[in-house]
Amino acid sequence: MSYQPINNSQGGNQPNLCNFSFLNCFNQNTSSSHSEDEDPRMAQEPVILNVYDMFWTNEYTSSLGIGVFHSGVEVYGTEYAYGGHPFPFSGTFEIVPRDAENLGPQFKFKESLHIGFTDFTDEDVKNIVESMSSDYRGDKYHLINRNCNHFCNELSKVLCGREIPSWVNRLASMSNYLPFIEKWLPKEWLTPVALEHSLETSISHDETNDIQSS
């Protein structure tokens, strides 16, 4: 399966699809079957995977298809991603697409890959991500078993029926044979800066509600 690179210099449980508006999310060409009075918003929206380097060794190993990568799924001008934190609620978050600076100093934008198309609306996508949140809690994040790339792979399959390229998360597969790899990665990398900001807002909001209810 091939993926189309995009030239850009800027640097659990499966959701219940019956709850969403459009069920044609498997990259099928249905233009010939659309009726004349069909909603024009049914036009397919691109699903983009934005990939970031996270470790200096990528400079030497990425050509071999091995590296430490972060990824996010971009659709309708929003990039959705997942990170870890010590609390029992969602670790998913949103950023402006390809904004590596908002992720943290160790993140460097690498490339964008066109995965497929989706007929889900912008609102549908947000609802899908929300429905995945309980399975992608911050305290369930694991560098090898449940990371940002696992989240992106599942979201991509829901949106357009296609998996992300295997090399993006190959490190997780390799760790089954080379368990010491996990020890290379600093624990502070679990929580991107953008997720920290979202986390601070959530905690502050909860504390305010607790004060008001007491």
The percent of residues in helical segments reads: 25-40%
Whole-angstrom Rg: 18 Å
The overall strand count is 6
The spatial strand order of the largest sheet comes to 1-6-2-3-4-5
What would the CATH topology be?
endopeptidase fold (from Nostoc punctiforme)
Number of contiguous helices: 5
Please outline the major beta sheet: 6 strands, antiparallel
Q: Point out poorly predicted stretches.
A: 9-38
| Overall 3D shape | globular
**What do we call the CATH homologous superfamily?**
PPPDE domains
N-to-C span: 57 Å
Amount of beta strand: 15-25%
SSE ordering: EEHEEEEHHHH
The CATH class designation is Alpha Beta
Q: What structural category characterises the helix and strand content? A: alpha+beta
- Counted up, domains total 1
* Reported CATH architecture: Alpha-Beta Complex
Q: What is the mean predicted local confidence, pLDDT?
A: 76
Key terms:
single chain, 214 residues, endopeptidase fold (from Nostoc punctiforme), 6-stranded antiparallel beta sheet, globular
Walk me through this protein's architecture.
The chain is α+β, with helices and mostly antiparallel strands. It has a single domain (4-10, 43-213), classed as PPPDE domains (endopeptidase fold (from Nostoc punctiforme), Alpha-Beta Complex). The protein is built from 5 helices and 6 strands, in the order E-E-H-E-E-E-E-H-H-H-H. The protein has a 6-stranded antiparallel beta sheet. Strand 3 (69-75) and strand 4 form a beta hairpin. The longest helix is centred in the C-terminal third of the chain and has 21 residues, at 193-213. It is globular and about 40 Å long. 36% of the residues are buried.
